[in-house]
């Protein structure tokens, strides 16, 4: 699901207000940069963002992985393994999870919003896993690409063109990975408009600076 | 959210059938072990598991991360970055994602099931991220624990007791990580009933074999 399914927009705050369901929620105003919930949080509440912007992230020692930004109308829980921090001044409406069950039953649209938020978090979690699992092979692919373009690239109006003379399978063997992994990583670069792949054995670098920046970030 | 919120059970298949919404779905029977969808899937459909059991996993080279097992009544999409494989003979009901919008609107309970499935996937994704991000520090903690128990553990009916004489903060400094990371990892071991922490400076190993197996798995 995660982002591929258009979930139909509903304005949760308006819907809750007009169903008179907001009375049981407690308002809380949060200063910019405050970390409001951590994985060590004891309370088990659900909250809706009324205004502002929150960042949901995982943090391990010096590593931090942002999983989502929550905005007005989004729903989330205090009781997760993530940290929640205000990016700007933010107002939330809190209710105990046990009380929230009734809200879900009275207003089924709420679970659509939940599915949307969870889908976004899942999508970014998978990106994070790919980043961690692929770290080494990404670096080898980046080195291979940069080296190949430097050695054999030809300038053209579309960018630097390289006739690889190699299939994805050959590159995979060269780098010590699988065809699937090469495809996944090249697809990411294509989506980000850094490279183009007009046919099986040709690559075009559309944005060499971005390719170099990507390699140096690995 | 992810598993902490009891989402209220609905029997999606029954509900869809009685609302006469299953007619537009196409049945598909899948043999055990078949990989039915991959990240390279072109079609964009939603499916419901009618019977059997599917595994959703990420795969990178030789690494595989299972994110969920889907069972009868669960909903998922063909268009994700995960692989979907039949663990046993399975029957699914497929419909184009575009057509599924109407189903969601006619039967709001569907989005609750979606939220539940996404929550489970998210939970396991976070576990996977922790595993990847923590790999080295886990290993250092495991070594520290095993060594401490071997050197200073005292047998008791409850297990091997160790008076640490160290706070979590001291251990963190010793191992080169943060107090939060130590707490997260110790909490995992406590949840799995491998160790106990009756007070701040005492640890009990309830299952030494499990602790050793855990260390060797890292």
Characterise this structure.
The structure is a homodimer of 218-residue chains. With 218 residues, chain A is an alpha+beta fold. The first copy, chain A, contains six helices and twelve strands. In chain A, the strands form three sheets. In chain A, strands 1-8-3-6 form a four-stranded antiparallel β-sheet. A four-stranded antiparallel β-sheet of chain A has the order 2-7-4-5. The longest helix of chain A has 44 residues, at 109-152. Chain A is elongated, with a radius of gyration of 23 Å. The two termini of chain A are 29 Å apart. Residues 1-8 of chain A have low confidence and may be disordered. The interface between A and B is large, with 55 and 55 residues.
Question: What's the SSE blueprint?
Answer:
Two copies of one chain form a homodimer.
Chain A lengths: L11 H7 L7 E5 L4 E3 L7 E7 L1 E8 L2 E9 L3 E3 L5 E4 L3 E7 H10 L2 H44 L1 E3 L2 E5 L4 H8 L3 H13 L3 E5 L2 E4 L2 H10 L1
Antiparallel strand pairs in A: 1-8, 2-7, 3-6, 3-8, 4-5, 4-7, 9-10, 10-12, 11-12
Record keyword descriptors for this entry.
218 residues, homodimer, 4-stranded antiparallel β-sheet, 12 strands
Q: What is the rounded Rg of chain A?
A: 23 Å
Major sheet size, sense and barrel closure of chain A: 4 strands, antiparallel
Greatest interface (CB-CB under 8 A), with counts per chain: A-B, 55 and 55 residues
Q: What form of chain A results from the Cα inertia axes?
A: elongated
Residues in helix, % of chain A:
40-55%
Order of SSEs of chain A: HEEEEEEEEHHEEHHEEH
> Structural class given helices, strands, pairing of chain A?
alpha+beta
- As residue ranges, the low-confidence spans of chain A are 1-8
Strand content of chain A: 25-35%
**Tally of helical segments of chain A:** 6
Read across the widest sheet of chain A, the strand sequence of neighbours is 1-8-3-6
The first-to-last residue Cα distance of chain A is 29 Å
Mean model confidence by pLDDT of chain A: 86
Q: What would you call the quaternary organization?
A: homodimer
Q: Give the strand tally of chain A.
A: 12
